[in-house]
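dumping these here so i dont lose them again. two proteins, back to back, each one seq then structure tokens. dont judge the mess
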Amino acid sequence: MSRFAATLVVTGSLLVSACGAHGGDAPAAGHVADNTELSRLYQEDQADRAVDPDKIDWATVGPRDVKRREQVGLIVDAGGARTAADFFHAAMVFQHGGAVQDFQTANRLALRAAQLDPSNKRLRWLAAASKDRELMNLGKPQLYGTQFRRQNGGVWELYEVDPSVTDEERAKWDVPPLADARKRAAEMNAAK
């Protein structure tokens, strides 16, 4: 089992599924349609995580994650990501990676998604969460307070947070105040 799988990370909130499907209608003139393959891979990624985190079979999900990242990487490298939803879907698949490079890729993709759709809060949140996950996996304090961990079946804890980052800065990335993250850790432990 990888270090990532052993240190189960919870984002604290479930993200809603992909930006709306087009239902087979042709896109309006000038409108770029979302990439259906990226949407499908994202949906599969989310379905693998739609259960109690303690019940995820990482021996099964891990290899599927690797395959999805490979497929998403090929699509993105070929220019197949064009919309904010495409970049979001790709970023989320990489966010569930196991290496620092995966989280860096997730961050780059999430930032591009947020640039394309600045009003979409979950895109900014994912950019912050991917940066936090990168830092956590480098053994550094996270900036925004989006990452939780539990080692060896113990209690959930908010991973170390850089004290110089303010709640005002968190709000710019649509991340709740740090006090809310601490409450979330307590709630996660109370639910056990």
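---- next one ----
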Amino acid sequence: MAIHLDSESLLTLQAAARWLPGRPHISTLHRWRMRGVRGVKLETCLIGGTRYTSKEALQDFVDAIDVHESPIIASQTCVPLNKVDGNVRKRVCSSPHAKSVLDAAGI
């Protein structure tokens, strides 16, 4: 979905960073537009050498991330190595084993 100049309120990325709660650094917004978060990229447009986004695009971005949000421990299988840090991966992968050991011990 593209940014519509006639119906959306444009913000520079700097202004968008000030508008968001927690005031993320402008490089964070550039990362969101270039790499995205969980497969979702922030919509922007380039006008006269200045990068813009909109409040609506920011809302769509946050909503799309919320839809993709899911608990890591939702499945009984190990999480792919590149998806989580080592400590979480160890806990997720060792949970089924620990459960079977406790069941065998009658605990």
